UniProtKB/TrEMBL annotation:
The keyword S-adenosyl-L-methionine does not apply. Residues 29-161, 177-295 form the CUB domain. GO terms for cellular component: plasma membrane. Keywords: Disulfide bond, Signal. It holds the Pfam family CUB. The lineage of its organism: Eukaryota, Metazoa, Ecdysozoa, Arthropoda, Crustacea. The keyword DNA-binding does not apply. Residues 1-19 form the signal peptide. SMART domains: CUB. It comes from the Eukaryota. CDD domains: CUB. This is Putative suppressor of lurcher protein 1-like.
Amino acid sequence: MRSLLGLFLLAAAATPGGASLTHSVSRRCNDTISSAYESEGVVTSPGFPSRYDPHTSCSFTFVGARHQRVRILFTEFSLKEPPEHLRPHERCLHTDWVAVYNVINGSSKQEIDHFCGTTVPNSVMSASSGLQLVFKSGSRSPMEKDLQNPRMGFSARFKFVSDLGLKSGRQMSDGSCHFVFNSTEARNGTLYSPNPEGFYPLDTTCVYFFYGLPGEIVRIIFKYFDVEGVLPCNSESDSDYLEFSNFPSADRKIPTFCGYMAPNVIHSDSSYFRMTFRSNSKFGGTGFAADYQFLDNSRHPFAIKRVIGAAFVNGGQHSRANCLLVVTVTSLLIVKTLQLGCSSIKEIA
């Protein structure tokens, strides 16, 4: 259902040695882990790597400081396989499972996802400073007791982060998910949705600000895109979405985007540009990755002036045909109309 965003940032996300306490041993169930004492470590199923017992219930509660998020990276995962005849959303309801929850205001819980079987889950990140991981196992049949290759359980690394796993751009000092990309600091690079190695967090808003020198524009090219949502890609359709603006406020001529179809090449009108990613509390995806570059506008006189409609592809599922009609104007006053997203691409000079 969700595809894995395989990126190379795991090594970059490692904390420099000696900066904090790290534990690699099994800890007690129903433990509370605070960032005041540990910034990262390991949690496992009881007895790991030996097989866990039936009828086991175990939880780990993570409590971070203000502006911190909790990131969980599963390194090993081998639980009882669910029945094959069940639908995907029912599979983990009738077997051993691991569930991850956002902890809101220190008490109420919001489910992020359930995991079961032997596929290592994508990494997850909390929506705020609290997260809980719960493991439960059911009964074991007589045949399972005699298996020579018993299931072992799981092992996961946790880390309290304040940068949401984002390594490009300059995060604003208030610790929010606001990142500045200044052409005087880096003329090109790659940007990501929060928690690039896995599912982006729920209930999160991230703003990417681009500041070029006078006469510069910014170009953004997406190379991966998986943002949960359906047309019209806004809060009214309960969608997560990505929006663009040439102004500090909304820019109605550029549509919002969601689903699996990445925006085409995006160019700003001027040296200022803003990109905003919003996720709700419903479902999530693996996000996006895009390359950006600041360009001399005198050499690249191209800007999107109006967009009518939107193109959308929902994975491999068939749906009604949609087309994206873009009207562009260059500084040479040459008007072009591009018809994109249909069965063919047409350009009319």
